[in-house]
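Justification of resources, computational component.

The compute hours requested in this renewal are based largely on the per-chain cost of generating structure records like the one below. Each record pairs the submitted sequence with a full structure-token output. That output is archived, and it is also reused by downstream analysis tasks.
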Amino acid sequence: MRAARSGGFVAVLGVAILIETAGFHLVLSARHPWWAWTLTLTSVSTLIWLVADYRALAASTIRVDGDAVSGVIGRRLSFSAPRDAVASVEPPRLLPSSGPPPGYVNATKPAAPNVLIVFRTPVTARLFGMARPIRQLALRVDDPAALRAAFDR
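The structure output for this chain reads:
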């Protein structure tokens, strides 16, 4: 899922976080040093997470075995489901103007998805560490035809 990575987005967001952190730290450090250091450490943690997620997206996998499908998308999402829980693997649909339907997750934002996995029943996924039921999983994969072919076997 190397195509899902956005180095420019991570760099711009990282610079914005650094500038904002420095400003807040300078403003707060004189009167509220505890808050200044808490916000600074939180920002540093966020930067570390962003870089780790960027690197992990390159090693993301979707595994289709005989009777199961599982995936790990960066540090954002992980899931496992029976293979027969997958209703279809198709090109993504245009979302309605009212927003995505319940149970829809685009796990490779800000990249535009090029494949949509639709589940027959909700599948429990860990999204940013929290369990959440999903029905549609939008992804940006390097070879969407190969992923569709893996489900056709």
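The two ends are 22 Å apart (CA to CA). Residues 116 and 138 are 4 Å apart (CA to CA).
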